[in-house]
Design a protein that fits this description.
- The strands form four sheets. Strands 2-1-6-7-8-9-10 form a seven-stranded antiparallel beta sheet. Strands 11-15-16-5-17-18 form a six-stranded mixed beta sheet, with helices on both faces. Strands 12-13-14 form a three-stranded antiparallel beta sheet.
- Helix content is 32%, strand content 27%.
- The termini are far apart.
- Strand 13 (270-279) and strand 14 (285-292) form a beta hairpin.
- It is of the alpha+beta class.
- Helix 1 (61-76) runs antiparallel to helix 5 (191-201) and helix 4 (181-187) packs across helix 5.
Length: 437
């Protein structure tokens, strides 16, 4: 379960920022804090969803980018050189302290224990890495640290001693200065490292405008899906596009006219077809027709097709989704319904978590979000972004209209647009002067 993610010196986040899914403590007469949006796991009260708002260029998308970079480093730092260099190049550069390390830390629940794992990157090298864990929130134990040297508790981190000699050598083929020790240990079948790496990899980070990426994930899933899983997917897709009664994955001939433009075909040359009903003039069903999905489906349907698989997987297994551009090409009723799926114990029995970055202010009113479920990102004139939760703001009433107050700029996470008038007036003036000449 996702408890908290911390990031520092990454893109516009110069200072330490915390994305927390911890629910705020209950207080007397706290009528606005809907307990249905909270679940309890190992004595932690955690949120089922969190919305993140902010103006354009405020830095809110950098939250998902930071977590995606964290996941990529954990997953592939051994196999692919250059990931740490890529992350280092995304450090905050608008400061005299631009050479401070990029830092990530993730706190989560796994196997009835609280783990805190993180690392720092400086000059494209892993300068620090650590793993702590505890069965008791007040008593934390060190599993390993890596800062100048590697220190491992062999009792807690069982199996890692077989990997130490190789890991401590910067010249080893598996372990490099720009690779994570955790990743190397996982690839050498150290069980705890495998479990942690898998837990981190299981978090879906969705770029809401990368339709091709999520479609490839969906295609791979459907090739291996059981009949029951495919039927569930079909019903979910049909709920937003009743015209699609089924779908097929077909081998794509190399000479296919659609192959050049079918960007959602996967690596195995499969092509997706949607199945539609055909009716005569009297409305009688006469048959079915298969059409290339990439040519016939709307952009919204195509986007939902890719995302539907991740929704099913997340709700089936209690996983976390971080969803950027949540409202892109989706009707407001659809975004509301997705949030409701995560809030409902009927559709979310395993306590999956949804973190979504959006401009859909209607959700502030319609989704019945708690104040601790609303994150706000602001950026100052120095280019520094800060993430705060609405419950940190003083003077916000429990019964306030969050949507109205947000749009009025009461929370400071809206764009300042008056300068647009000045720019247009200046342009008109300059254009008029040019004509006068």
């Amino acid at each position: 379960m996702f408890i908290e993610f911390q990031v520092k010196n990454f893109r516009s986040f110069k200072d330490l920022q915390k994305l927390t899914m911890r629910a705020a403590p209950l207080r007397p007469n706290d009528n606005g804090m809907l307990e249905g949006n909270v679940f309890t796991s190992d004595d932690f009260r955690l949120l089922k969803s969190k919305a993140i708002y902010g103006g354009n260029a405020s830095g809110k998308s950098n939250i998902s980018r930071a977590f995606a970079s964290f996941v990529e480093m954990v997953e592939d730092s051994v196999a692919f050189e250059g990931i740490s260099h890529f992350i280092w190049n995304q450090r905050f550069l608008l400061s005299a302290q631009a050479d401070d390390p990029v830092s990530f830390q993730y706190i989560f629940l796994l196997n009835e224990k609280i783990f805190r794992y993180g690392f720092e990157i400086k000059d494209a090298i892993v300068s620090n890495e650590w793993l702590y864990g505890s069965s008791d929130v007040n008593r934390e134990e060190k599993y390993f640290t890596r800062e100048g040297g590697l220190s491992i508790d062999k009792t807690l981190f069982k199996g890692a001693e077989l990997y130490i000699d190789q890991a401590m050598s910067a010249e080893g083929e598996v372990f490099r200065p720009d690779a994570l020790f955790l990743t190397g240990a996982a690839l050498n079948n150290v069980k705890l490292a495998v479990d942690i790496r898998n837990a981190i990899k299981s978090i879906f980070t969705i770029d809401g405008i990368d339709d091709e990426g999520v479609m490839k994930v969906a295609m791979r899933y459907l090739e291996k899906a059981t009949d029951g899983e495919r039927d569930s997917f079909k019903k979910l897709l049909n709920s937003i596009d009743p015209g699609i009664v089924d779908f097929e994955l077909r081998d794509r001939p190399k000479s296919s006219a659609t192959s050049a433009i079918n960007s959602i075909a996967n690596e195995k040359s499969k092509e997706l077809f949607s199945i539609h009903s055909v009716f005569d003039d009297n409305g009688t069903l006469t048959g079915r027709v298969a059409t290339p999905f990439a040519l016939w489906a709307s952009q919204g349907t195509s986007r939902f097709f890719g995302i539907a698989v991740l929704l099913l997987e997340s709700l089936n297994k209690g996983l976390t989704i971080i969803f950027d551009e949540f409202d892109a090409r989706f009707h407001p009723n659809l975004t509301l319904k997705i949030v409701e799926l995560f809030h409902s114990p009927t559709t979310n029995p395993h306590n999956a978590q949804l973190i979504f970055i959006t401009h859909d202010t209607g959700l502030l009113r319609r989704a019945e979000l708690r104040r601790d479920q609303i994150g706000l990102v602001t950026k100052d004139r120095h280019g520094i972004s800060k993430l705060r939760t609405l419950i940190e703001y003083k003077g916000v009433r429990k019964d306030a209209s969050y949507e109205k107050e947000y749009l009025q700029g009461n929370y400071g996470a809206t764009p300042y647009l008056d300068d647009m008038d000045l720019a247009i007036i200046q342009n008109l003036s300059a254009h008029g002067s040019k004509e006068a000449e």
